[in-house]
Write a structure and sequence with these properties.
The structure is a single chain. By secondary structure, the protein is α/β, with parallel strands linked by helices. The protein has a single domain (5-241), classed as Spore Coat Polysaccharide Biosynthesis Protein SpsA, Chain A, CATH 3.90.550. Helix content is 42%, strand content 15%. It contains nine helices and seven strands, in the order βαβαβαβαβαβααβαα. It has a seven-stranded mixed sheet, sandwiched between helices. Strand 2 (31-37), helix 2 and strand 3 (53-57) form a beta-alpha-beta unit. Helix 5 packs parallel to helix 7 (174-185). The longest helix is centred in the middle third of the chain and has 18 residues, at 124-141. It is globular. It starts with a strand and ends with a helix. 43% of the residues are buried. The model has no long low-confidence stretch (mean pLDDT 91).
């Protein structure tokens, strides 16, 4: 039997795009949960027009806290697979089925929607930043991870219940990197499924991801995890060897 799927969408000031994202998600026939992360615009009011669950943060707690809140709620509601995507139209809900096909062929894994095959569509700084982050996260995981910064993912629900990843306001984009490392320690790998890299003409606001600042935060997190494991040279060798 195919596990039930719930899409979780963290949203912070996404009034310009959230309606389009929700409508396209609903066309997939999958349930949706949106977490309004203390938006100062009409995001919550727009979400409230649709037959989906809206969770609200009184203040802006950050993407990590919103993701964890939504993921746990999806598990409470009986999801077998929790899908995550951004609210800024950077991800196409229409690509969900291709990720689900990968999950069906590989039970128990995290599936990442990877944009890196479409490198020409990336802003140069973001592409380089993603590749640097991928190297460090791959080292800490002990296998090659592709597009570790993509927020379009599928998580097995039972894995979410087994992981305790820090998700405070300071974790931001670090959370989505750290959860891959903690999942690897729990015996769960991440695999990729190609999706388009949507930047030009798609995003209507500046990305919340800061290529230099956020990559440095991720590297610091990974470096600490490697130091705590004696640098985990076995993991580095596995990545280099492929």
């Amino acid at each position: 039997m195919t596990p039930s799927v719930i899409i979780v969408i963290p949203a912070y000031n996404e009034a310009a795009t959230i309606a389009d994202v929700i409508e396209r998600c609903l066309k997939t026939g999958v349930e949706v949960i949106v977490i309004d992360d203390g938006s100062a615009d009409d995001t919550a009011a727009i979400v409230g027009r649709y037959p989906i669950e809206l969770l609200r943060n009184d203040i802006n707690y950050g993407k990590a806290a919103s993701l964890m809140k939504g993921m746990r709620r999806a598990v409470e509601r009986g999801a077998g697979i929790v899908a995550t995507m951004d609210g800024d139209a950077q991800h196409r809900p229409e690509d969900l089925n291709s990720l689900l096909a990968r999950a069906q062929d590989n039970p128990g894994v995290i599936v990442i929607g990877s944009r890196l095959w479409d490198s020409a569509a990336f802003p140069r700084a973001r592409y380089v930043g993603n590749r640097i982050a991928d190297f460090w996260i791959s080292w800490a995981c002990g296998y090659r991870v592709e597009d570790s910064q993509s927020g379009f993912r599928l998580y097995p629900a039972d894995l979410i219940g087994r992981l305790n990843v820090p998700h405070g306001p300071d974790r931001g984009f670090v959370f989505e990197s750290e959860i891959l490392i903690e999942a690897s320690k729990a015996g769960a790998r991440a695999i990729s499924s190609p999706i388009p890299a949507l930047y030009e003409g798609t995003l209507v606001r500046a990305s919340h991801f800061q290529p230099v600042q956020d990559v440095l935060r991720i590297i610091r997190m990974v470096a600490w995890k490697l130091i705590s494991r004696g640098l985990y040279l076995q993991g580095l060798w596995r990545v280099i060897r492929g």
